[in-house]
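Quick one, T. Sequence first:
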Amino acid sequence: MKIFNQTYPDAKIESVDLETGLGGLYYDIDGFDSRNEYELKIDATTKEIYANEFERNKNTDEILDLSSVMDPSEAIAIALQVPEVQGLAPTSWSLDADYGMQIYEIEFKQKYTEIDIKINAVNGDILEVKIDD
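Structure tokens:
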């Protein structure tokens, strides 16, 4: 997130995703200011910027408030308590501002089944467990 803030010092962060692809793990960070939307894809290990995109005319979005959110590892530990994901490892996570809340979404995959767990990023409450076969 530091790289995003250095690249776009006036932008507010809207979401942070940790994804697999581009040869390894990378962060996909979206943000905006009064004029533009921004997206940065950053290698999680080397911190190299893979993609740097922007669009004009940003609509209103909720701002991601990082001041009170738990660390991603804490959210993953909470998600791992859900019986449906016992023995699985997360494949990705994201942190978004939705409906006035900061929400982690932790994704797990087992063969052809995807399990998404949404967690309140401030208090750790499990908000949703979604299983797609």
